[in-house]
Amino acid sequence: MNTTVITADRSCNQISYLIPDMIVLYIELALTLEILLVNVCILCIFIRKENRSPVTVLLLALATTDCLTALLTVTMDFCGYFVFSDDVKPTVKYSNLNETVLLWNRKYPSCVIFNVLDNIVYSCHMSSILITTLLCVQKALAILFPIWSQSYLTVKTSLIAGMVALLSSLSLFLPSVIIASLEMSSGSNGACCYSDKHISVVVDVLRNGKCNTWLNESKNNSDYFLRKVAMFPRLG
């Protein structure tokens, strides 16, 4: 899960992004390298003309989207740690346990770029899900209707289906990316400010004891700040 903390003062709505612990980051890097190695091998094998088939075309698309999802995710986390380390601040989660988390307060205009990259990750992950579903449907049709599938389940059909899956995923996120990017602005000290409309859409307040404890006990709380927490799925 990717935790996002919304900080709203009188002039600027800011979003802070949770950065994983260093050990988690290196595990994430190791998994990413494994994903890239396996999928690059798949790409090198199935891209050859003699290996192309309706199934391998979808597998090529799946390998590409998985590579992009893993690579962009770990790249953004490493950028938070090593490139924009000055913008990452430890925040007390529970004062009685002295438990801290790292929050990345993205600055303007880099926040616009990272907002686009975030949504590309979500779009690629959604594409992977759709392509996996297409592979299941394709296999079911081949079993149930073997003669029909030989005539109609062609390489061209798989290519079109893969493109439709990709474009469908992009269409889900592209409008919100454009609107959110246009509504971002620079605040004091280069802070990235989000519009009230964007915050109202993004924020889903978790009204439970643990959330309220975090909000009330955070060292960064003040009379002028309201902290809300929203959960979003990241890379599964």
From TrEMBL:
Protein's UniProt keywords contain Secreted: no
Domain (G-protein coupled receptors family 1 profile) ranges: 38-236
Species assigned in the record: Mytilus coruscus
UniProt protein name: CMKLR1
GO cellular component: membrane
Subcellular location: Membrane
Residue intervals passing through the bilayer: 23-46, 58-84, 126-147, 159-182
UniProt KW Zinc-finger keyword: no
Record-linked InterPro entries: GPCR_Rhodpsn_7TM
Main subcellular localisation: membrane
UniProt lineage: Eukaryota, Metazoa, Spiralia, Lophotrochozoa, Mollusca
Keywords annotated in UniProt: Membrane, Transmembrane, Transmembrane helix
